[in-house]
Amino acid sequence: MTTPDGLLIVDKPAGWTSHDVVARARRLCGTRKVGHAGTLDPMATGVLVLGVNRATKLLTFLVGCDKTYAATIRLGQSTITDDGDGEIATSHDVAGLTAESVARGVAALTGEIAQVPSAVSAIKVDGRRSYARVRAGQEVVLPARAVTVSRFDILDQRTRTVHGHGVWDLDVIVDVSSGTYIRALARDLGTALGVGGHLTALRRTRVGRFGIDAAHSLTELEIASEADDIPVISLADAARASFAVRELTTSEATAVGYGQRIASQARGRGQLVAAFSPEGNLVAMLDESGSLAKAHVVFTPSGS
């Protein structure tokens, strides 16, 4: 079985790491050349974009795409991991909360904000993952980073009692820029309201142009693999769906394929462009910020 080059959109199940899914995809696709465009925490489910064979070169450009998440935030308790997998660190009375105060807290976390990532994130600190340092008992304080929360909508909210303690649960949907931590949004909302907060559920429903409707469960992929019919999105279709497109002439395609620069069509915009040959093949990802376009990466023909 030879799986074509392309993107494979997986609906990651809860309890699996992103690396677990990549390992399973390698077996199902019959190739070691499988990577992902951004991890999901083990507790999270939803869209995980995988690149197969030559499409792994496209992943670095997809990592920075905006994303959409559906989540449940629990107010009234904080945890050491900012999600439901961690031990409860603090508990507070939520009797003083109102729908209006919660809405104001959400509004304050919408737009361009400075966010301190969760200490148990995969960010590297002096060459070692932050979460590994936390688990080793080290105190980690990560610097704030600029992120954009373009939508932070409350879909439902309710109070309930969990193990004898009253909490306030919010079902939300958020659109965020790359690098935004939804756990940190939950933590910061709880902190701002004075009651603590953490995530109890997280589902990624979109990465760039790829939504949950395009995602396949691992069970579906097992069946597809047996039929030698893994549902990859072709390299060309994936690039056309995600980036600005430039149609090259035959001579331009040849030049770019040999690593030569060609005249830019988008000078000064710093635009990332997917360049195609007259035959419809993806030739390269171009940087057209200067007078001459240069290739970030060239896609040599399959089998070359």
Write the layout of secondary structure elements.
Layout: E1 6-12, H1 18-29, E2 34-36, E3 45-52, H2 59-62, E4 67-75, E5 77-79, E6 88-91, H3 99-108, E7 111-115, E8 124-125, E9 128-129, H4 130-135, E10 145-162, E11 165-176, H5 182-193, E12 197-207, E13 210-211, H6 218-226, E14 233-234, H7 235-242, E15 244-247, H8 250-257, E16 262-263, E17 272-276, E18 282-287, E19 292-298
Parallel strand pairs: 3-12, 15-17
Antiparallel strand pairs: 1-3, 1-14, 2-3, 4-11, 4-12, 5-6, 7-10, 8-9, 10-11, 12-13, 16-19, 17-18, 18-19
Helix pairs in contact: 1-6
Can you walk me through this structure?
This protein is α+β, with helices and mostly antiparallel strands. Helix content is 23%, strand content 37%. The protein has 8 helices and 19 strands. Strand 12 and strand 13 form a beta hairpin. The chain is elongated and about 70 Å long. The two termini are 19 Å apart. The mean pLDDT is 90.
Oligomer: single chain
Strand content: 35-45%
Query: Between the first and last Cα atoms, what is the distance in angstroms?
Result: 19 Å
Query: Could you say which overall geometry the principal axes of the C-alpha atoms support?
Result: elongated
| Main β sheet profile | 10 strands, mixed
